[in-house]
Write a structure and sequence with these properties.
The chain has 639 residues and is an alpha+beta fold. Helix content is 44%, strand content 24%. Strands 2-1-5-4-3 form a 5-stranded antiparallel β-sheet. Strands 7-6-10-9-8 form a 5-stranded antiparallel β-sheet, sandwiched between helices. A hairpin with a 5-residue loop joins strand 1 and strand 2 (40-43). It is elongated, with a radius of gyration of 45 Å.
Length: 639
C-alpha cells in the first residue's frame, strides 16, 4: 500500500499533467515566457497554428519578436509600470498588436499571470484573437464616415417612426441638425402627403422596400424635391426593426428638366408660329399695297375713311405678325453701344408721365455700369413690356423698381439657363410688389398667346416677344414670383467689348414718277405680284413678273438690258431669293436688287450684303415704303 509520503507526490504529478494538457490543448493561443529574459519557454498548439511559426522556431523567439517594432516601446513601458507599481498586477487583460510569421498584423487581447516554470519565474500569456472584431469595427467606422460624407440624405427611423440616425447629407438638404432631428417623428421632418405616406408604408411592409419622388419642406420652409428610397431592416430573427431612408435631392434637376421641356415646347410652337406668320405676311402684304393703290384712284372722303380703317387693321395685323416672328426666330437688327442708365432714365420718365399716380416708381442703379451692344428700340420694348405687366399686376397701386447692375455670369448661372454664356453682363431688373403668380402660371408666361388678362386687353405675345428679343441679343431672362408678394424679372445682356455704331437715315424726299423704268418683280404669291404690279404701274413703272427664281433668271438673261431693277422675295420654292441674287450678280455685277422678306435671317443678310445688295424691304410693306425703297435704290450710285 502507498505511504502517506507518496500521496502528495502523486497529487503534484496529476496537477502538472492536467496543467500540461490544459495548456497544450487549449483552443486559445497560449505561451509561457521567462520574466527575466523574455524568452518564450513554451507554446501551445493553438498559438503555433495562429502565429505560423513551428514550435522549435517559437522557442527561439522573445515576446518582443512577435510584436511589430512600433509596439515594443509600449510593451517595455507596460512592464516597467507593472513592476514599479505594486498596485498593478499582471493578471489583467490588455490589447496588443502582434504579428505572424507571414507578416500579418493580428489584434490580441492578452491576460498575463506569473507561474513557476522549470526553476524560473514564468509568465503565462493567454490570447484572445480580436482581429476580426477590430476589422469589423474599422469597417463600421469607415462606413459611418462614408455615410457622413455622402451627398444623399441618409436617415434611419425605428418602427415607432422616431429618427435614430441623421447624417450630414440630411443636415445639408433639410437644414435640421442631427441633434434636432434624432428622437423626433420622421413624419414631422420628412413630410409627405398622408395618402402617399400610407401607400408607401403599406408597400414597404409587404415587399421590404419602396421608392418614389416626394415633395418636402426644409426647416426654413423651402420646397425640395427628392427621390426617396426606403428599405426595411431586419434583425437576426428576420423581424423588422428599423427603416433605412435614402433621399437624393432632385430640386435643381427638376428645374433644369422643366426649363429644357419649356425650351422644347417653345421651339415647337415657334416653328409652327413662324410658318403661320409667313403665310399671314403674304396675306397682309397685298392688302396694304392695295390700300395705297386705291387711295390714289379714289379721292372720295367716305372711301378714304374705309381705306384708313383697312390700312390701320392691316398694319395692326402686321405688327402682331412681327411679334410672332420675333418670338419664333429672334430679332437681328443693327446694334449700337447703349448705356443702361440712360435707357432706364428714359423709361422711368415715360412711366412717370403715363402710369397711374398710385404706383410708386423707383430706380436702383449703381455708378459705372457697363455698356452693351443692342437695338435701343427693342430693349425699350423689352423693359416697357415688363413694366406694363408690373403695372397691370397692381390694380390697387404699389411699387415698381427698375434697375441695372454689372454681373459676372458664372457656370452655375449658365447651367441653370440654357443658351446663356459665361462672362460680363448687364443685368436689368423690373420688380413689383403686386399680386404675383402661381407656379403653374409661371410655367406658361412665355408661351405665345397665353395671357392672364381679360379678353381684348392682351394678345399673349408680350413676354414671348421679350424672350425673342433678349435671345437675339445673346442674353437670357430669369423670373421669380410669389403670390401676394410680387414678381421680379432679370434681363441679362452681354456687356459690349467694342462700340458698334450704326447711322439711321430717313428719306424725306418726295416720291417721283417711275418714268417708264422697268422693274422685274419676283414673288411666288400671285396676290402680292398683282398688288405690287398695280402699284408700280400706277406710279409710272413698267413691270415684268416671275413666280420663282428660275423663271426670273431666264427672263433677266433674255432682257437684262431692258431691266433697271429686280425686286425679289427670299422664300420661294424653285430657287430662293439668295440663290437668285447670286446668279444675277454673276450675269451682271451692276444689277440693282431689292430683297423683301417677312423676316431676314442674319446669315442671309450677310450673304446678300457681300454681293453688294444694300436695300432690304420688310414684308408687309406699304405702297409708300415700296416706292421710296425703289427710288432710293435707283438713285444710288453703282461702283
Amino acid at each position: 500500500m502507498p505511504t502517506d509520503r507518496d500521496k502528495p507526490t502523486h497529487s503534484r504529478v496529476s496537477e502538472e499533467t492536467s496543467f500540461q494538457l490544459l495548456f497544450v490543448l487549449n483552443p486559445l493561443p497560449m505561451y509561457v515566457f521567462d520574466n527575466a529574459s523574455l524568452n518564450i519557454l513554451a507554446v501551445n498548439n493553438a498559438a503555433v497554428a495562429r502565429y505560423g511559426w513551428t514550435r522549435e522556431e517559437f522557442l527561439e523567439l522573445t515576446i518582443e519578436d512577435i510584436r511589430p517594432p512600433e509596439q515594443i516601446p509600449a510593451l517595455r513601458a507596460y512592464r516597467r509600470k507593472v513592476y514599479s507599481d505594486s498596485s498593478c498586477g499582471l493578471n489583467q487583460s490588455m490589447a496588443w498588436r502582434h504579428w505572424t510569421k507571414g507578416g500579418e498584423i493580428i489584434e490580441m487581447e492578452t491576460t498575463w499571470m506569473e507561474v513557476p516554470w522549470e526553476g524560473v519565474v514564468g509568465v503565462l500569456v493567454t490570447c484572445v484573437d480580436r482581429s476580426e472584431l477590430k476589422r469589423a469595427e474599422e469597417r463600421a467606422r469607415e462606413q459611418a464616415s462614408l455615410l457622413e460624407l455622402a451627398a444623399d440624405a441618409i436617415v434611419v427611423r425605428g418602427l415607432d417612426d422616431r429618427i435614430v440616425y441623421w447624417n450630414r447629407g440630411a443636415e445639408r438638404l433639410y437644414g435640421w441638425t442631427a441633434a434636432e432631428a434624432i428622437g423626433r417623428p420622421a413624419a414631422e421632418i420628412l413630410q409627405m402627403t398622408a395618402e402617399k405616406a400610407a401607400a408607401a408604408e403599406k408597400e414597404l411592409m409587404e415587399t421590404g422596400s419602396w421608392s418614389g419622388q416626394v415633395e418636402q419642406k426644409t426647416k426654413a420652409g423651402a420646397t425640395v424635391i427628392a427621390n426617396s428610397r426606403w428599405t426595411l431592416v431586419r434583425d437576426e430573427q428576420k423581424l423588422p426593426k428599423s427603416v433605412l431612408v435614402i433621399n437624393t435631392d432632385q430640386t435643381e434637376t427638376k428645374k433644369l428638366e422643366s426649363q429644357f421641356l419649356r425650351a422644347q415646347r417653345l421651339e415647337s410652337i415657334g416653328t409652327l408660329a413662324s410658318g403661320i406668320a409667313h403665310d399671314l405676311n403674304n396675306i397682309l402684304a397685298p392688302i396694304l399695297m392695295s390700300v395705297g393703290f386705291l387711295r390714289k384712284t379714289n379721292a372720295d372722303s367716305e372711301a378714304e375713311a374705309f381705306l384708313s380703317i383697312i390700312e390701320s387693321s392691316a398694319e395692326r395685323g402686321a405688327g402682331i405678325v412681327k411679334q410672332v416672328l420675333t418670338f419664333a426666330r429672334g430679332v437681328e437688327g443693327d446694334r449700337v453701344r447703349l448705356e443702361p442708365d440712360r435707357l432706364v432714365d428714359e423709361l422711368i420718365a415715360i412711366m412717370v408721365q403715363t402710369f397711374p399716380k398710385n404706383i410708386d416708381i423707383q430706380s436702383d442703379m449703381p455708378p459705372k455700369l457697363w455698356s452693351f451692344a443692342g437695338d435701343a428700340t427693342q430693349i425699350h420694348q423689352v423693359l416697357l413690356n415688363l413694366c406694363v405687366n408690373a403695372r397691370d399686376a397692381m390694380t390697387g397701386g404699389g411699387r415698381i423698381t427698375v434697375g441695372a447692375k454689372n454681373v459676372e455670369v458664372d457656370q452655375h448661372l449658365v447651367a441653370m439657363n440654357p443658351g446663356a454664356q459665361a462672362g460680363p453682363h448687364v443685368a436689368f431688373s423690373v420688380a413689383d410688389n403686386g399680386a404675383g403668380m402661381t407656379a403653374e402660371t409661371l410655367e406658361k408666361i412665355f408661351d405665345p398667346f397665353f395671357t392672364t388678362k381679360e379678353v381684348g386687353k392682351g394678345t399673349g405675345l408680350g413676354l414671348a416677344t421679350v424672350l425673342g428679343i433678349v435671345k437675339s441679343h445673346g442674353g437670357f431672362l430669369t423670373v421669380k414670383s410669389y403670390l401676394d408678394v410680387g414678381t421680379t424679372f432679370h434681363v441679362f445682356i452681354p456687356a459690349a467689348k467694342e462700340p458698334e455704331p450704326a447711322a439711321i437715315e430717313t428719306d424725306t424726299r418726295p416720291i417721283t414718277n417711275g418714268e417708264g423704268r422697268r422693274i422685274l418683280l419676283v414673288d411666288d404669291e400671285p396676290a402680292i405680284r398683282e398688288a405690287v404690279s398695280c402699284t408700280l404701274q400706277a406710279s409710272g413703272y413698267e413691270v415684268f413678273t416671275a413666280e420663282d427664281g428660275t423663271d426670273a433668271l431666264a427672263l433677266y438673261h433674255n432682257r437684262r438690258d431692258d431691266i433697271d431693277l429686280v425686286l425679289t422675295d427670299i422664300s420661294m420654292g424653285q430657287m430662293d431669293g439668295v440663290t437668285l441674287s447670286r446668279a444675277l450678280k454673276r450675269l451682271n455685277p451692276k444689277v440693282r436688287i431689292i430683297v423683301s422678306s417677312g423676316h431676314f435671317h442674319k446669315d442671309n443678310v450677310t450673304i446678300l450684303e457681300s454681293l453688294g445688295i444694300k436695300t432690304f424691304l420688310d414684308k408687309p410693306y406699304t405702297a409708300e415704303k415700296l416706292l421710296r425703297s425703289i427710288q432710293a435704290e435707283l438713285s444710288r450710285p453703282i461702283a
